[in-house]
Amino acid sequence: MSTDEKKPNETAESSYWDSLTTPKPFIFAGVVIIGVILEIVVHLILDISVVYTNFFYLIIVLAGLWYQKKAIWFAVFFSGFSIINDYILTGALNIESLIRALILCLVAVVVGSIADRIIVLQKGLIARNTLLQESRKALVEANKKLKLLSSITRHDINNQLSALLMYIDVAKASPSHPAMLDFLAKEEVLVHNIERQIAFARDYEEIGVHAPQWQRVETLIQSAQRAHPLGTITLDAALDGLEIYADPLLEKIFSNLIDNSLRHGERVSKISFFYQSAGSALTVVYEDNGTGIVASEKERIFEKGFGHHTGMGLFLSREILGITALSIRETGAFGVGARFEISVPEGKFRFFEKKPIGWTGAGAK
Predict the structure, then answer these.
(1) What digits encode the pLDDT tens for the residues 229-242?
(2) Domain map of the chain by residue range?
(3) What pTM was estimated for this model as a whole?
C-alpha cells in the first residue's frame, strides 16, 4: 500500500465523522425557520404546546453537532421565545415553560460538548494518519537507501576481492618472480579500495539517521583541517560565526572538499571559505587555486564512482546536504581553481553574531 493510500475502514471512519460534524447552513436555516413558524402558528395562534417543543430538540441537536457549544444561543433564543409566548397567552410565567427551557439549554450544552469532543478526536485521528504516512515514507526511503547501499557495496567489494584473490594466487604460484613486488603493491591498492568502500557504506548508512542540528561552520572546518594536514597551504575562513542546520555528517563535506584539493589540485597553495547572500538565502563558497575541473566533468564529479579514488565523497556530500534541502555545485574555471558553492535556503542558516541581510563574508571575492 502506498503512503498516500488509506485503509477502507479509516476512510469510512473519517467520512462518517466529517458528515456528522460538518455544518450545513441552508438545512439548519430551514429547520430554524420551521421552528419559528411552529412557535408562532401552533403555539401562539393554536395554543398547542406539544408539537413545537419536541421539534425544538431537533434544532438544538443539529446546532450542537454542527456549531458545537454555540448551540446554547439557539437554545436560549427558542426558550425565551416560548416563555414570552406562554406569558402572552396566560399572562403569567409558567413553571412548566421554565423547566422546559432549562432542559433545552442542558441538551444544547451536552450535545455541543460531545460534538466538540468528536472534532478533537477527529483532528487527533487525522494527525495520527499523517504521522503514520510520514513514518511509511521514512520507511520506504530507508529501504531504498539500504537496497542501494547493499547493491553498491556488494558489487564493488566483490570485484575488489576477486582481483585481490587473483593476485594472491599469482603470488603463491610464483614466490620468486621479479614481478612479485608489483603484485603486492596492487594487492595493497585493492585493500585500500575495500577500506574506502566499507567507509562509504558506513557513512551512507548514517545519512538521515540522526536528526539535523545547528552546526558552527568554522568549527567543522577546523576539524576537517586537523584530519588533512595542509603543510604549506594556507586556509582562510571568513564566515562570521555562520551556523547551518544540516545533517550531523556536514563535517564530512568540508573534509572531502579539502581532501579533493590535496589529491587533485596539483598546485594548490591557498584554500578559502566564505559566504555570500543570495536574496533571503545564502551561499557558502569553497575555493582553491589549483588546476580546477573541466567543464564536461562539473556535474559528473557528483556521480557515485566517478574519479580516481572511487568517487564517493562528492556523491555523499550531495546526499548529506539534500537531507535539509541544501545543494552543492561546482562553478570554478579550469586552470584557475576549483569553486564549490553550497546553497543554503532561508531558515537553514543563522549567525552566532547576527549579520544583516546582504552582508558578505570578509573573505569574499
Answers:
(1) 888 999 999 998 99
(2) 8-135, 141-206, 213-351
(3) 0.49
